[in-house]
């Protein structure tokens, strides 16, 4: 018998209940992992509140975690008991133990702790595909990243700077502005006190940006489009403020023959080779020091409701994890 955070029906943070549950032995192709930590992400909120449809009820939220393999299912190769592993596409990581598909797990290299791995897999590989594959960022590019002080934002800002770009961010308080500036950003706009469209125009002398990475959604659309150069790319990869409604394709023409994409991590790590390439690139920039990782919030997994309230209330910065001990 193990413990997990269980949801019987969608709703607010209070619908999550910490209780005992049976966990079957790992099936063919699976690893059973005693988790050290799970990552806290907005995708967990989306499944909890019904923005994303859960496959069934009851369910355990959480997509990201790390820990130690305690048993190995049939037909698994490349993993053994005692291996430290991490994953970003699992289901039900708000739990003490979990069965995960071996094809979705990667070994944690020396020099990276379980807690750091649990907190960076989803956010860090999101930054990887956004910066290296959705729009290959490099010297000469000017980019805008909303939610610069968030988990993806702090990793992406440092990584983009490492790639040679001029990096502009937005954040919602002076403290968050300072945090982002300490993590690779050349300029950060406090969107609560400044008009970010006007500030981007000022910063770039009217040239605007090659790409805008937007995980905020409703609050930043369509203003994000006004920050783009002609034929620039709008990347919508989240909706922390709410879903963008009534998207008007004609706006893309009116604002400069713009491009738009709505990617997801799972669309960029669908094969084992893609997953390993993304994870290895992330581990490399972290171990090299090009991307510094700091865990800003730790919550016992049994207090996941408080963690969700803080996340939705924009009271968190950087990386947040749920701990199992």
Automatic annotation (TrEMBL):
Enzyme class, first EC level, given as a word: oxidoreductase
EC number: 1.6.5.5
Residue ranges annotated for the Enoyl reductase (ER) domain, each copy included: 11-322
Keyword Amino-acid biosynthesis: no
SUPFAM superfamilies: GroES-like, NAD(P)-binding Rossmann-fold domains
InterPro entries on file: ADH-like_C, ADH-like_N, ER, GroES-like_sf, NAD(P)-bd_dom_sf, QOR-like, Quin_OxRdtase/zeta-crystal_CS
Any Pfam family hit: ADH_zinc_N
Keyword annotations from UniProtKB, A to Z: NADP, Oxidoreductase
GO function term, MF aspect, one: mRNA 3'-UTR AU-rich region binding
NADP among keywords: yes
A Gene Ontology term for the protein's cellular component: cytosol
Organism domain of life: Bacteria
Protein name per UniProt: NADPH2:quinone reductase
């Amino acid at each position: 018998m193990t413990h997990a955070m269980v949801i019987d029906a969608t709703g607010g943070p209070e619908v999550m209940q910490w209780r005992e549950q049976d966990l079957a032995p790992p099936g063919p192709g699976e690893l059973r992992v005693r988790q050290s930590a799970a990552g806290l992400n907005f995708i967990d909120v989306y499944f909890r509140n019904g923005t994303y449809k859960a496959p069934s009820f009851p369910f355990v939220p959480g997509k990201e975690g790390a820990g130690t393999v305690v048993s190995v299912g049939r037909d698994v190769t490349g993993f053994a008991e005692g291996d430290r592993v991490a994953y970003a596409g699992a289901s039900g990581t708000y739990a003490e133990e979990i069965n995960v598909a071996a094809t979705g797990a990667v070994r944690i290299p020396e020099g990276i702790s379980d807690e750091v791995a649990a907190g960076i897999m989803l956010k860090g590989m999101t930054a990887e595909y956004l910066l290296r594959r959705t729009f290959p960022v490099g010297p000469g590019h000017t980019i805008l990243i909303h939610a610069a002080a968030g988990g993806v934002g702090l990793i992406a800002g440092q990584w983009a700077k490492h790639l040679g770009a001029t990096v502009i961010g937005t954040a919602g308080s002076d403290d968050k502005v300072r945090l982002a500036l300490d993590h690779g950003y050349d300029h950060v706009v406090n969107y609560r006190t400044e008009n970010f469209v006007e500030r981007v125009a000022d910063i770039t002398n009217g040239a605007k940006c090659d790409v805008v990475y937007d995980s905020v959604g409703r609050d930043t659309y369509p203003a994000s489009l006004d920050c783009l150069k002609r034929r620039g790319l709008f990347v919508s990869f989240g909706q922390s403020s709410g879903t963008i409604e009534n998207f008007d394709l004609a706006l893309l023409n009116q604002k400069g023959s713009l491009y738009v994409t709505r990617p997801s991590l799972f669309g960029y790590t669908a094969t084992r080779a893609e997953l390993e390439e993304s994870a290895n690139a992330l581990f490399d920039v972290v171990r090299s020091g090009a991307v510094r990782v700091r865990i800003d919030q730790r919550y016992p997994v049994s207090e996941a409701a408080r963690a969700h309230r803080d996340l939705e209330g924009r009271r968190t910065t950087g990386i947040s994890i749920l701990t199992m001990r």
